[in-house]
Amino acid sequence: MDICIIGGGLSGLSAAYSLREKADITILEEKEKLGGCLSSSKAKNGCIEDFYHHCFSGDNNLFELSDSLGISDNLEWLSGSTGYYANDKIYPLTTPIEILRYPLLSILDKFRLAILTIKSKNYNLSSLDEISAKDFIIEKCGISVYNSFFEPLLNSKYGNFKESVSAAWLISRIAIRSDRKTGGEKLGYFRDGYNLLIKSLETELENSGCIIKKGTKAELINFNGSKWEVNGAAYDALISTINPRCLTKIGGPEFPEIPYQGAACMTIGLKREVTKGIYWLNMKDKAPYGAVIGHTNFIPPENYGEHIVYLASYFKDKPEENLEEIMIKDFCNRFDVKDDEINWYRLNIEKFAGPVYIKGYQKMVPEYEKEGIFLAGMFSQSNYPERSMEGSIIAGKKVASEICRKYNI
Known about the structure:
FAD/NAD(P)-binding domain; seven-stranded mixed beta sheet; six-stranded mixed beta sheet; 11 helices; alpha/beta
């Protein structure tokens, strides 16, 4: 049986891995490297992800995949500290004492925020799908908690969509991050980076006979009555992991209008540390990026021979003109970084980084099969209401099992 997979991100690779011994597989990846948003590039030493990543203690499918690939011993658990940049100052918010000292929330605000965090795992997320995160937070915690704590998060993550995002997404995000210790949140990372996961999958798939075509975009799909034709080549089954709107444009079925956003993520190699030891620094002050991720305040800088920082930004339709210049200039001015302290920097753009979980999104989620095409990706049910590597792996495994069931392989 011949299967074509459009997209070499984690969902596509996971589907291929599940099917590798049961079918002949061809993966078409538009870019020159695999991984999608989990792709990596060279750092001073080794590789660094193009877009920041970490995993959580409940990511069991990721752990099973890592174990199957023989790389689970490379996974480490480290503490991730957090903070806010407000009024031109960095406020650490990792320990209970730091949170109590945070001046932009009253004692009552902090109490309400603590209660919400405690209750987050008990909410029925489906019931929150039609409620905006803004309205929910204001009702439960008050306007000052929203303005001082949650609005910067929503703005950095969703920009112009911030008032449309559902409470289901926000509460799921709080719940997954609620198991904090006094030293910070425990997060997982491969000692050799997530490039190890992607390269291990690529090697295993190629050793199994899988054909991987990088730099090859799916231009046209068509069902000829018995087989799917992709760029003129015929296949018995087709898996698509790309934005459903993009699939429609090349001959796929119609889908509900799922809003997507792009990501513009700058990675900077530095000679020194600049975020006062904080891993994840949300920007409350207006800036051309919503968060500064001090990667080497999470992973030891010795792994790279330098300090590494990400500047996270999201956009609708297309990024701002001259964004690279705007971001690096603002960063250097704001954090007092001199030109000779920068080893290198690059801006990575992903036009369709992921769907925006607006109110009512649950009704838009496509099934795993539509009109004979199998679908898995950021848009899948397993990635709602919070997208993750775990959700993408589950989606890939799910379509693989659906193909096995339908074709009895």
